[in-house]
Amino acid sequence: MSFSEIPTLDLAWANDAVRRPQLLAQLRHALVDVGFLYVARHGVPEQVVDDMIKVLPALFSLADDEKEAMNLHNSPHFLGYSATGAETTAGQADRREQVEFATELSANWTPGQPVYERLRGPNQWPKAGAVTVPGTDRDVRAVVGAYLEALTALGEHFLQLVAEALALPIDALLPFLSDQHRLKLVRYPGIDDNGATGKLQGVGPHKDSSGWWTFLLQASPPPIGGLQALNRAGQWIDVPAVPGTFVVNIGQAFEVVTHGVCPATTHRVQVQAGAPERFSVPFFQGVRRDLTKAEALGLRQHFETTFSERFLDAAAPSESAEGRKIDSPFLHGRYDTWGESQLRTKVRSHRDVGRRFYADVYDKYIHDED
């Protein structure tokens, strides 16, 4: 876990009988010892990625009233637009604006169902034709739909490779998946010369709580960067943009399922004063909202047997002191389902939405550490 660089895996090796065992060995190392990796030759069509990269500036160039019309505070599903500073991480406002989308589903929650089922629901979109890929008629709805479809397929393929690398049946991890995956289109504004110096929080230190795995497109070309991962020694390691790749990292639920063998690595984004704007697109592979901790821990015997050294070391610190401070409600909290721990995280990050739609649980989620 005291890694000094992020490994790159060539997923095309999965189709080569000679190289597939090498790929699985590299993947096993990345899963157990790093928690972050790049994937290259991943099979997502170039056109799908290019369209996403090209549509981002147009989306964030919308007028303020057009952004407000799809503001996240209108959505009990936490989908829509958030202005810079609207979301908080590690107790501080994040310096980014973003639009959150998800697999397009209808809202079917009714009183009496678990409150976390309200997370399931439809997207908010700009007006038809308001945001298109420059020079084409492909609008943001089509671009996001194609991207979600492609990343959903990549995620399922990757999860089968992960299972094989961890000596599990190839489909063992698929039943944990949700019917809805989430996507953020993110802009980190450039910092002008208004007196700001040094580095500011783009998004604070955290472990991903919005999905099983995260697949990140760093949509601005190098050297524009800012993403960093925290190793066990407490050192922040740069994760620079590498064209043609996705950055992949482990979410909190996967750490639970693997009994800590595959840890969710703390990471952050810092924005350098004087740097240009930066775009990124994280895709969060969804976890079943009704997944209980008891179900999540059901593979204990396998991981205890196959990775006995990791269990023997369980009493030793598995990360730096800074990493142990990160809020991880499903890992360490009092909530028994993934859905409720995720809802709690979202309410704490978007308190205006929590007060509006979740007043009956708002105080519990906000003050559960008091």
The fourth-level CATH homologous superfamily is B-lactam Antibiotic, Isopenicillin N Synthase, Chain
Radius of gyration: 20 Å
| Mass-distribution shape | globular
The name of the CATH architecture is: Sandwich
Output the strand order for the largest sheet. 1-2-12-9-14-7-6-3
As for the CATH topology, it is Jelly Rolls
Text of the CATH class = Mainly Beta
For the secondary structure, the number of strands is: 14
Number of helices: 13
- Major sheet summary line: 8 strands, mixed
Q: What is the structural class?
A: alpha+beta
Span between N and C termini? 32 Å
The oligomeric state of the chains shown is: single chain
Pfam families: 2OG-FeII_Oxy (PF03171), DIOX_N (PF14226)
Protein name: Fe2OG dioxygenase domain-containing protein
Family: Belongs to the iron/ascorbate-dependent oxidoreductase family.
Keywords: Iron, Metal-binding, Oxidoreductase
Overview of the structural elements:
The protein has 370 residues and is an alpha+beta fold. It has a single domain (8-366), classed as Jelly Rolls (Sandwich), CATH 2.60.120. It is built from 13 helices and 14 strands. Strands 1-2-12-9-14-7-6-3 form an eight-stranded mixed beta sheet. The protein has a four-stranded antiparallel beta sheet with strand order 8-13-10-11, with no helix packed on it. A hairpin with a 2-residue loop joins β4 and β5 (92-93). The model has no long low-confidence stretch (mean pLDDT 90).
